[in-house]
């Protein structure tokens, strides 16, 4: 089985607002986000956003996708019948900024979503090809 | 009563107040506190306070205050006008507590109950009147919860002032009756002129009294439900009426703190048998760095 990711040009619509909410909503499909969610959203800069969902208080922050990366929301249009079948995943929306929300907790540097992105920098360093005249050599010499 | 400030942002609480009559800064005053719109599932709750010189107690009787609930809306409006005509003797202040504020407080991680919200609002009003320089000597409050406990709480905060917390204080003390009129006038106006951030258009009073038993209120709730978001922020989500309708008609939503307390106890207590089983099953645990960040390698879809 192989998996394929396709991101059609239509997914690169920049007019996008992505919210990552701290709950799972058992619904896939359109929702009146502008009317019911963003209409009650209060801003104090890019940080310190507040709103509510189903009456519960949310605190949020706008967050850029790390440079060199693109956020993609994907959907599998056709579920496979068997395990051997190839999988086709379609990107339906790209984004380079999103807003994440905490339940009743101010957004801080300790939030998981921010810490997760530490990995990007670390991965870059540990996966960098080792060159001959690199630090390893100098360690031995010393 | 000018509520345009509240109408501009009806998710936030809002205070409206009269000018402070000169005599109330000199003469010893009594102050009454009452609330309106505590029970309804819709709209704001309003706390009101009125104050005047104690020497005017008898004169207040002639204005005909009684529990605002027993008066018609027109009657309340006319009494409120009379109150404003006597603005050199009586001062008032109301705080509109937005339904958004009620919902989000009552549905926090650590839930704040309505009594605490009410007490805090009453305390804020008293403090604000004192900050305005009013010479308050006696306070009369219509009770919320146990009157003895509430009275002790206020007494501790304002030890210099003579405080009476009682049931039906609005019927027994004119100044509380006056406060209840201010609160009710503000609540009625806020509900009637409610602007829905969600873009819902409404004719006058289509939502009835706002009490869960009112058929018009029920109809409003049913007609303005959204299966994802539940209700507009005009509705108090923390009311069981709203909660039940959401459970019945809207999509299911689960939160990270659902059944937090129950699950914790089970999770933290390992079974007795676990102490006797061999731990090493050849499975390497991921480093904490990844666990803390909820990072896993995706090897299948």
From TrEMBL, chain A:
PANTHER family: RIBONUCLEASE H2 SUBUNIT C (PTHR47063:SF1). It comes from Sinanodonta woodiana. InterPro entries: RNase_H2_subunit_C (IPR052863), RNase_H2_suC (IPR013924). This is Uncharacterized protein. It comes from the Eukaryota.
From TrEMBL, chain B:
Gene3D superfamilies: Ribonuclease H-like superfamily/Ribonuclease H, Ribonuclease hii. Domain 2. Its EC number is 3.1.26.4. Manganese or magnesium. Binds 1 divalent metal ion per monomer in the absence of substrate. May bind a second metal ion after substrate binding. It comes from the Eukaryota. Its cofactor is Mg(2+); Mn(2+). A divalent metal cation binds at residues 34-35, 142. Keywords: Endonuclease, Hydrolase, Metal-binding, Nuclease. It catalyses: Endonucleolytic cleavage to 5'-phosphomonoester. Endonuclease that specifically degrades the RNA of RNA-DNA hybrids. Catalytic subunit of RNase HII, an endonuclease that specifically degrades the RNA of RNA:DNA hybrids. Participates in DNA replication, possibly by mediating the removal of lagging-strand Okazaki fragment RNA primers during DNA replication. Mediates the excision of single ribonucleotides from DNA:RNA duplexes. This is Ribonuclease. The lineage of its organism: Eukaryota, Metazoa, Spiralia, Lophotrochozoa, Mollusca.
């Amino acid at each position: 089985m192989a998996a394929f990711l396709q991101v059609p040009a239509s997914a690169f619509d920049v007019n996008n607002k992505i919210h990552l909410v701290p709950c799972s909503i058992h619904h896939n499909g359109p929702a009146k986000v502008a009317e019911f969610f963003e209409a009650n959203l209060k801003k104090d800069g890019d940080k310190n956003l507040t709103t509510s969902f189903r009456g519960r208080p949310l605190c949020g922050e706008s967050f850029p996708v790390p440079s060199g990366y693109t956020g993609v929301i994907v959907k599998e249009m056709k579920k496979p019948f068997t395990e051997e079948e190839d999988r086709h995943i379609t990107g339906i929306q790209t984004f380079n900024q999103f807003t994440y929300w905490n339940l009743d907790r101010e957004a801080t540097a300790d939030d998981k979503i921010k810490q997760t992105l530490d990995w990007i920098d670390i991965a870059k360093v540990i996966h960098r090809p080792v060159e001959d005249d690199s630090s390893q050599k100098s360690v031995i010499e010393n | 009563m000018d509520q345009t400030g509240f109408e501009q942002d009806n998710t936030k609480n809002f205070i409206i107040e009269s000018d402070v009559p000169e005599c109330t800064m000199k003469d010893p005053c009594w102050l009454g506190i009452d609330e309106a719109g505590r029970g309804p599932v819709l709209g704001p709750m309003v706390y009101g306070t009125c104050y005047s010189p104690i020497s005017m107690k008898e004169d207040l009787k002639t204005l005909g205050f009684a529990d605002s609930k027993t008066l018609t809306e027109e009657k309340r409006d006319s009494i409120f006008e009379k109150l404003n005509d006597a603005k050199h003797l009586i001062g008032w202040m109301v705080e509109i507590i937005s339904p958004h504020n009620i919902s989000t407080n009552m549905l926090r991680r650590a839930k704040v109950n309505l009594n605490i919200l009410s007490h805090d609002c009453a305390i804020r009003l008293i403090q604000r009147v004192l900050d305005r320089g009013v010479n308050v000597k006696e306070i009369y409050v219509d009770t919320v919860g146990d009157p003895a406990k509430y009275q002790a709480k206020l007494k501790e905060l304002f030890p210099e002032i003579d405080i009476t917390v009682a049931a039906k204080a609005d019927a027994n003390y004119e100044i509380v009756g006056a406060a209840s009129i201010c609160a009710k006038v503000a609540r009625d106006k806020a509900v009637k002129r409610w602007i829905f951030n969600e873009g819902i258009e409404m004719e006058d009073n289509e939502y009835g009294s706002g009490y869960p038993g009112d058929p018009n209120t029920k109809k409003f709730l049913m007609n303005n439900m959204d299966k994802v978001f539940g209700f507009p922020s005009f509705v108090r989500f923390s009311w069981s009426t709203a909660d039940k309708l959401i459970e019945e008609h809207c999509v299911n939503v689960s939160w990270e703190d659902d059944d937090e307390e129950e699950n914790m106890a089970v999770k933290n207590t390992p079974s007795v048998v676990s102490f006797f089983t061999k731990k090493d099953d050849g499975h390497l645990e991921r480093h904490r760095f990844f666990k803390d960040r909820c990072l896993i390698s995706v090897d299948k879809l």
